[in-house]
Design a protein that fits this description.
574 residues, alpha/beta, Phosphoenolpyruvate Carboxykinase, domain 1, Phosphoenolpyruvate Carboxykinase, domain 3, 3 domains, nine-stranded mixed sheet, 27 strands
C-alpha cells in the first residue's frame, strides 16, 4: 500500500503505517487533512453555499485552503485576541459565521465513511498485545480529532463548551492487513499482491450510504474465465478471507467499496492467516473490476482447479451489499449442488421449550416472504414458554445426509442482512449497537447484525418441521401436505408477493424460491429436490406451508404474529 491517505466515493482511508499523527499540529500538516480540506472546499464552491460566500469575502478563492490551515494552526497556539492581526481581524470578528465554517467542515469529515489501515509485516494473527495496540491507536486518533476540533472552536468562542458529545470523530472502522502466503493456483497468483485483512475493528453504529437500495437480476454462469490479470490492480483492492458455510472464500473488493467489504465482518466468520496459508480457497470473488466489458456480475466454475469464481464490475449499479452477499451465497450454493447437497433459501431456528423439548424448524422463502419475521414474532410471543431460540441460519442453509443417512441442515452465515423497515416487529436478534446500518433513511433500509457463532451454524441439526413461507394468500396460518407431489409443486414454484427488496413487483415466482444457485443449475437441482423431498416424507418430517400474509400491507405485523401463534400452538402439541 503506497498511499498514506486516499479519498474515494464518500470515503477516506488512512494508512496509519505510512503516516500516523500524534499531535493536533501534525494533523493540520498531514496529507490527509489537505485532501479532506480540498474536497470540502470543492464541494462548497460547487454548491455556492453561504460558508463559501463568507470565505471568498475574506480570502482569494485559490488561497482559501492555505489561509484556513494557517489560521487553524494559529488558533491552536494562541488565543483569538492574539491572532486578530490585520490579515485575520475581519474574519474572526464575525465569530458566529466563522464557527459555522468550523462546524460545517467538521460535519463534512464525519459524513465520510472513514477507515484506518495498519500493515502487519510479521504476518501473524493479531491476538494479544498487537490487537490491543490497534484498538488503542484508533481510540487515540478519535480523541485527537475531537481535541483539534474543540480547541480551535473554543479559542474562537473564547470559552469552553458546556456540553461535550463524545461522537465518533476518528474512523468508523479499522483493519490490520498483511501480505498473504496462500495456496492460490498459479493462474491466480496475481491476486497474492493484494493486502489481506486479518483483523477488523468496528465502531458502531456504523452507518453507510451505498448508491443502491436493491439488487437487480440474476447472476449468470459463464463458460469463460472472467478474471484477466492485466485488468487487475492489486493496490486498489483488499482481500477479505471468510468462511461461507464449510467453504473458504477469498473476497477481493475495490477500496471504493470499502463499506461493502468491511460489512462482511458482521456476516461471515473471518478466516485466520493460518487457515488462508494452508488451504486453497474454494471460492474467489473479485468485486469492483474495471468496466472494460460493460456492467456485469457473473460467476464461473474453474473445473481444472476446482474453484468457483465470482466477478462484478466497478459500477454504481453494483454499489449495494446484496451484490456482495448474494454472489458469495450463489458460489457456495453451486458448489453444494455439485456435492449433491440441497441449498435452501430460508431460515432455521432451534427452539427449546421450558419443559425441555426441542424442535428444529426450517422456513423456506425468497426475499420478503416473511420467514425471518415469523421466527422473530415467535420469539416475542413465546415469553415464558420457550427457554431459548437459536438461529441456525437466517438466509441460506444446506440440506444434506449424515453418515446414518438422515437429513440434517447447516448454515452459511453468522449474521443476518435484515430490512430496517421490519424492526417495528422487534426483528433484531441481538443488540442493535453491534449493527452496520445501510441507508437508514430510505425504503428497503438494511442492517447487518451478528446472530450466531460459526460453531452453531456448522453443527449439523436434524429437521423436525419443513415449511414454505407463503406471503401472498390468506387462509389457515399453518397447514401440511400429505403427498410429495403437493409439497414439491408449492416449493418449486417459489411464489411470493414482492416487497421491494429487489426491483420485482407484484406476485412473482422463482425456482425453489432460490435464485442463487438452483436457478442456474436447475437440471441438477431437479434431481436433488426429488431425492430430498422423498426423504423428508420417508423420515416422517412434517412438510407444509406457513401463511405470513406479509405481502399484504395491512398484515405487515399481524400476519407474522398470527403465523407465529399457529406455529407455537402446533409445536406445543407435539
Amino acid at each position: 500500500m503506497s498511499f498514506a491517505f486516499e479519498m474515494g466515493r464518500n470515503s477516506a482511508i488512512a494508512n496509519f503505517t505510512r503516516q500516523y499523527c500524534q499531535t493536533e499540529t501534525e494533523v493540520l500538516s498531514s496529507e490527509g487533512f489537505e485532501q479532506v480540506l480540498i474536497s470540502y472546499l470543492n464541494r462548497i464552491t460547487k454548491k455556492q453555499t453561504r460558508t463559501h460566500q463568507f470565505l471568498i469575502s475574506h480570502f482569494e478563492q485559490e488561497k482559501i485552503g492555505a489561509e484556513l490551515k494557517r489560521l487553524f494552526k494559529l488558533l491552536l497556539a494562541f488565543d483569538a485576541c492574539e491572532v486578530r492581526g490585520a490579515e485575520y481581524q475581519a474574519i474572526l470578528q464575525d465569530k458566529q459565521r466563522f464557527i459555522e465554517v468550523i462546524e460545517e467542515f467538521y460535519d463534512y469529515w464525519r459524513s465520510l465513511e472513514r477507515y484506518a489501515v495498519i500493515y502487519n509485516a510479521e504476518q501473524r494473527h493479531t491476538t494479544g498485545l498487537q490487537a490491543r495496540q490497534f484498538l488503542q491507536t484508533n481510540t487515540d486518533f478519535a480523541n485527537l480529532i475531537l481535541s483539534l476540533y474543540r480547541q480551535i472552536e473554543e479559542t474562537v468562542i473564547g470559552a469552553h463548551h458546556q456540553v461535550y458529545r463524545q461522537l465518533i470523530a476518528g474512523v468508523n472502522a479499522g483493519v490490520i492487513v498483511h501480505n498473504p502466503k496462500t495456496l492460490l493456483p498459479e493462474e491466480y497468483h496475481f491476486l497474492n499482491e493484494t493486502p489481506m485483512i486479518e483483523s477488523v475493528v468496528l465502531h458502531p453504529p456504523f452507518i453507510t450510504y451505498p448508491s443502491q437500495t436493491t439488487r437487480n437480476g440474476l447472476f449468470a454462469e459463464v463458460t469463460e474465465q472472467p478474471l484477466i490479470a492485466s485488468e487487475y490492480t492489486a493496490e486498489h483492492f483488499f482481500c477479505f478471507p471468510v468462511k461461507v458455510g464449510s467453504l473458504l472464500a477469498f473476497v477481493y473488493f475495490h477500496r471504493d467499496f470499502m463499506a461493502q467489504g468491511i460489512t462482511l465482518a458482521n456476516l461471515f466468520e473471518i478466516a485466520t492467516p493460518a487457515q488462508t496459508a494452508t488451504k486453497k480457497p474454494d471460492l474467489i470473488y473479485v468485486y469492483g473490476m474495471p468496466e472494460t466489458k460493460g456492467q456485469k456480475a457473473c460467476f464461473y466454475h474453474d473445473k481444472d482447479e476446482q474453484v468457483y469464481i465470482g466477478y462484478a464490475t466497478y459500477s454504481e449499479a453494483h454499489d449495494y451489499f446484496g451484490y456482495m452477499k448474494k454472489m458469495l451465497l450463489t458460489l457456495h450454493n453451486v458448489a453444494m449442488i455439485d456435492q449433491q447437497k440441497l441449498p435452501l433459501h430460508g431460515a432455521m431456528a432451534q427452539i427449546e421449550f421450558m419443559n425441555g423439548k426441542t424442535a428444529n424448524v426450517v422456513i423456506i422463502g425468497d426475499s420478503g416472504a416473511g420467514k425471518s419475521e415469523t421466527l422473530e414474532a415467535l420469539r416475542t410471543a413465546s415469553k415464558g414458554i420457550i427457554r431459548q431460540m437459536t438461529i441456525m441460519f437466517d438466509d441460506m442453509g444446506t440440506l444434506q445426509f449424515n453418515k446414518q443417512g438422515q437429513i440434517v441442515a447447516t448454515g452459511t452465515e453468522i449474521g443476518a442482512f435484515v430490512r430496517l423497515d421490519d424492526l417495528d416487529t422487534g426483528y433484531a436478534y441481538r443488540q442493535i449497537d453491534r449493527s452496520v446500518f445501510m441507508n437508514p433513511d430510505k425504503t428497503n433500509a438494511r442492517l447487518v447484525i451478528p446472530i450466531a457463532t460459526y460453531e452453531e451454524i456448522m453443527t449439523p441439526q436434524p429437521v423436525d418441521l419443513f415449511l414454505y413461507a407463503n406471503n401472498y394468500e390468506h387462509g389457515e396460518a399453518l397447514d401440511f401436505f400429505t403427498e410429495v407431489a403437493q409439497a414439491h409443486e408449492v416449493f418449486v414454484a417459489g411464489a411470493r408477493m414482492a416487497k421491494g427488496t429487489t426491483q420485482e413487483v407484484g406476485l412473482v415466482k422463482s425456482y425453489f424460491a432460490n435464485p442463487f444457485g438452483p436457478v442456474q443449475r436447475q437440471a441438477q437441482t431437479d434431481g436433488l429436490l426429488k431425492t430430498y423431498f422423498e426423504a423428508l416424507f420417508n423420515e416422517e418430517i412434517q412438510v407444509g406451508q406457513i401463511r405470513t400474509e406479509l405481502g399484504f400491507s395491512e398484515c405487515a405485523q399481524s400476519g407474522p404474529a398470527k403465523a407465529a401463534a399457529a406455529l407455537l400452538t402446533y409445536l406445543q402439541s407435539k
